[in-house]
Amino acid sequence: MDDTDTLIETFGNDRPILGMVHLPALPGAPDYEGSREAIRTRMLEDAAALEDGGVDGIVVENFGDSPFFPDEVPTHTVTEMTALATTLTAAVDVPVGINVLRNDAEAALSIAAAAGASFVRVNVHVGAAATDQGIVEGRAHETVRLRDRLEADVAILADVHVKHATPLGEAGLEQTAIETTARGRADGLIVSGSGTGQVTPLEDVERVVEAVAALEQEVPVFVGSGVTPDSIGDCFDVGADGAIVGTALKEGRETTNRVSSEKVRALLEAV
Asked: Which neighbouring-strand residues pair with 98?
């Protein structure tokens, strides 16, 4: 991003709430149901519910594509997501972010640059983690250089000890947060619980906030899972700058269900 910009300014709100669009299985994935149009329609309906409810940004990811590739996804996944992301950025007036599961930062950044998205989420940006896909390694050195080559005004929002994973090595939460920002050059950090929809320990959020406070740049910290209308105030109380909310905004609080406009409005009213 431009040096004069911060990730928070991108969203136009000093306490941004980002909603999730979990894409159904794409063509080529085991659970693909045979209709690109159905995927596009579902994406746009969920995005409209999020935007109408007042979110400040939307993250779209290939959530339905399990089992996930550990790093490089197939070319057809990149092209399908590029087409969908291009449609989405044209349909909404809030910033859009791209996450290519499990950890294809090159694809996410390329899609974002081509589709006019504003940021990417990278699950493992520095270090390494043991996951159900095997060992996943950060490629900050490649991702940051690719952004420069593409001349892409795309922010990097990176997880610190990402969910569904166990970090390798002895780096603690604080050290990883500092290295993700100072050495990995991430524009923002995400702290999550152990899995999708799981509560994020507030102590972990506070530790990351305090660790990066001494850095000479603005480093927003987002809570990445388990946020509800009842807990969002506590997240801000311990220093979080924003939140990424998915499961709590779905009908029946099931991650794969449709977005509920009522739940979105309830969360934003609590904020």
From this structure: 60, 120
